[in-house]
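Structure first, sequence second, as always.
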């Protein structure tokens, strides 16, 4: 059982971090960390929005627009890297760790498991020279979390000198042990053996960003097609690298514009255009592939005009067709709309590479335009199953008590997001219900071929005797459709949950994707507005 951390310990750890040599040389990052922790200590973590951070912590002007300026995400990524380096070196023996999860701005203070009160024998501290080298080695790949058993073994072996050693021998061995400790941790990180892991949590811990530019075999790979800058950090905290591994085609860049069904229009503002291929080196294994498209040239209201059938092309994976006569506008349902296609059980070809080929469709009608690709993502997969999709109707990600990460609101069209922060009962995760999307809206959730379980989370926090809307049963009614089939009719959350501010979960099984590879969820008001707090989609056996 992981011990709790007191507020006094949290503030002491913040002071230790800010007083460190690493943060003394990075005043901007120290100021940002102080701002985030200050909001947390004041009980105002809900105020940690991208706009507020940009204006109040980073000194941006009042007209700062986080949808076109990613400075907040860039600086938070730098802060996570700085904290990672600190805990590898100066803070190696700190009993408390400050964690900033990707996609979430509120800090977490976690107790390191099994760290003794006497953290280290006097004098055992990584030297500044060793610390500098360690930071240089690990900064490119990012650390992973440390299993408790390895941490305990390392601690017992390297920080507890046997009683028979004399003082003169200890003077010689202490610096050597410190060097061995740093080297052991570094090698274990590189081997994927060492992680700082919170008990009862598979996610919270000292975890580095998954930097796409590392491109090590078996690692997550995210590529922005046609993008030439070093990297882009999306709203979920994921890092996307520039275009690479391609042959043929042309890189095109567009002007910033609104793209529906995404909170990251930057993913769709560049593309690779023409007949082109990607040959991506991959370690043997099973992967999940996602391809990202948005038709921004053709369609109603565009300068080029046109619409469906203006662009049709084929996509092959390792010589096998995966998209035939593909029309990105028709697939998304509209132009300027994010479209994502998912493929599971993807493996590299015998030559150790993943081959993607995008070719023009040679039909019998009028000449078709060239293929496009905005981005691609490759992540480790599970044979026969798609990775679960978890969405929370909030601007930041959320980690539940089981350690599962819920992405910030995505794939939605229409409706509005709102936070209320009223207490919610009948759940171990009240934070999952602090935000909602309400109105007349839809979600187009991309899935691979297969059958799925859909779980919808609700809590009525507007109507009810103790809530702003008063009323009760019958105050709110709405329908929910999945791919055109009604799955909830005149749904009354207050009535089914037995009152207000109570979590209610509705589960649906054996759902299949549309021909466009989507679970299209449509929320239709009957009386007052429809809403949802969170959505989960998982593969069935």
């Amino acid at each position: 059982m992981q011990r709790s951390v007191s507020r006094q310990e949290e503030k002491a750890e913040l002071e230790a971090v800010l007083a460190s040599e690493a943060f003394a040389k990075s005043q901007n990052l120290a100021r940002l960390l102080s701002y985030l922790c200050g909001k947390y200590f004041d009980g105002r973590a809900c105020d940690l929005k991208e706009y507020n951070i940009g204006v109040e912590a980073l000194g941006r002007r009042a007209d700062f627009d986080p949808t076109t300026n990613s400075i907040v995400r860039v600086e938070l990524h730098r802060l996570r890297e700085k904290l990672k380096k600190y805990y590898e070196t100066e803070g190696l023996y700190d009993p408390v760790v400050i964690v900033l999860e990707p996609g979430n701005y509120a800090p977490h203070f976690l107790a390191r498991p099994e760290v003794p009160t006497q953290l280290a024998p006097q004098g055992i501290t990584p030297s500044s020279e060793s610390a500098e080298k360690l930071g240089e080695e690990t900064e490119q790949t990012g650390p992973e979390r440390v299993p408790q058993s390895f941490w305990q073994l390392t601690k017992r072996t390297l920080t507890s000198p046997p009683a028979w050693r004399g003082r003169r021998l200890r003077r010689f061995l202490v610096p050597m042990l410190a060097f061995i400790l740093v080297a052991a941790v570094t090698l274990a990180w590189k081997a994927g053996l060492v992680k700082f892991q919170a008990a009862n949590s598979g996610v919270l811990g000292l975890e580095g960003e998954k930097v796409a530019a590392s491109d090590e075999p078996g690692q997550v790979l995210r590529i922005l097609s046609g993008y030439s800058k070093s990297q882009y950090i999306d709203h979920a905290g994921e890092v996307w690298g520039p275009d690479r591994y391609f042959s043929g085609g042309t890189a095109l860049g567009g002007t910033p514009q609104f793209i529906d069904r995404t909170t990251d229009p930057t993913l769709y503002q560049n593309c690779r255009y023409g007949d082109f291929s990607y040959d991506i080196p991959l370690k043997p294994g099973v992967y999940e592939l996602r391809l990202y498209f948005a038709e921004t040239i053709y369609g109603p209201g565009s300068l080029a005009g046109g619409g469906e059938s203006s662009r049709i092309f084929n996509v092959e994976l390792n010589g096998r067709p995966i998209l035939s006569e593909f029309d990105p506008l028709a697939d998304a349902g509209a132009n300027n709309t994010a479209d994502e296609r998912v493929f599971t059980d993807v493996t590299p070809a015998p030559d150790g590479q993943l081959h993607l080929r995008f070719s023009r469709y040679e039909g019998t009608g009028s000449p078709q335009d060239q293929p496009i690709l905005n981005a691609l993502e490759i992540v480790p997969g599970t044979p026969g199953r798609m990775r679960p999709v978890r969405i929370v109707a909030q601007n930041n990600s959320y980690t539940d008590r089981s350690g599962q990460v819920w992405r910030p609101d995505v794939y939605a069209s229409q409706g509005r997001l709102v936070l209320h922060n009223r207490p919610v009962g009948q759940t171990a995760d009240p934070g999952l219900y602090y935000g909602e999307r309400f109105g007349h809206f839809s979600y187009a959730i991309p899935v691979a071929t297969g059958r799925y379980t859909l779980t919808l989370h609700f809590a009525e926090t507007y109507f009810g005797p103790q809530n702003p809307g008063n009323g009760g049963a019958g105050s709110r009614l709405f329908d929910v459709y999945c791919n055109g089939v009604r799955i909830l009719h005149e749904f009354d959350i207050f009535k089914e949950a037995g009152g207000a501010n109570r979590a209610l979960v509705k589960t649906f099984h054996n759902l299949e994707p549309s021909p466009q590879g989507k679970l299209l969820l449509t929320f239709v008001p009957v009386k007052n507005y429809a809403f949802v707090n969170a959505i989960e989609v998982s593969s069935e056996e």
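Margin note: The two ends are 32 Å apart (CA to CA).
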